[in-house]
Specification:
Blueprint (H helix, E strand, L loop, with lengths): L1 E4 L5 E5 L11 E8 L2 E7 L3 E3 L2 E3 L6 H13 L1 E14 L5 E13 L8 E7 L1 H6 L10 H12 L5
Parallel strand pairs: 3-8
Antiparallel strand pairs: 1-2, 2-7, 3-4, 3-6, 4-5, 4-9, 7-8
EC number: 3.6.1.55
GO molecular function: 8-oxo-7,8-dihydrodeoxyguanosine triphosphate pyrophosphatase activity
Protein name: 8-oxo-dGTP diphosphatase
Length: 155
């Protein structure tokens, strides 16, 4: 387990072992790299980040991940794989499940109230983008990116 303090001052525990946290995940994130570029969404308030969001009633984590990627970017995914979980010790403890996925296609969409578009970023652009969301700047995100890159050949 990897623990750190996020940029909001909350303790966060990150695990690459499934089911390590007692709280059930209700949020998802998805890492997708295609043609050596990372899929990112542009959140209107937070900035550039990987797609993700909250589960809707009756949805599985996998269904939420597929839906959120499409709603935020217009990208269809395939080969969705569980990758990690992290728990944020906010006033109410909450957990996110992180998936990796592969590109299956893309269509033009109208972006919603939260996002204003999407972009594909190289490793360097992803690391140095001037408008990265605070989510993308913490130690946990760096640890996950290192682990994704280390396992790049598996997906």
């Amino acid at each position: 387990m990897f623990s750190f303090i996020d940029l909001n001052g909350y303790k966060v525990d990150l695990s690459f072992t499934r089911g390590e946290f007692k709280v059930e995940p209700k949020h998802v994130l998805v890492f997708l790299k295609h043609e050596n570029k990372w899929l990112c969404t542009i959140h209107k308030r937070r900035g550039v980040e990987v797609p993700g969001g909250k589960l809707e009633r009756g949805e599985t984590l996998e269904e939420a991940a597929v839906r959120e990627v499409f709603e935020e970017t217009g990208v269809h995914v395939k080969n969705l794989k569980w990758f990690a979980e992290y728990a944020v010790h906010d006033d109410i403890l909450f957990c996110k499940t992180v998936f990796t996925a592969q590109f299956a296609g893309q269509e033009e969409i109208d972006f919603d109230l939260e996002t204003s578009g999407m972009m594909w970023l190289t490793d360097e652009e992803f690391a140095n983008h001037p408008n990265l969301s605070f989510h993308m700047k913490d130690e946990g995100m760096q640890k996950m990116l290192e682990e994704v890159k280390r396992n790049d050949d598996k997906w």
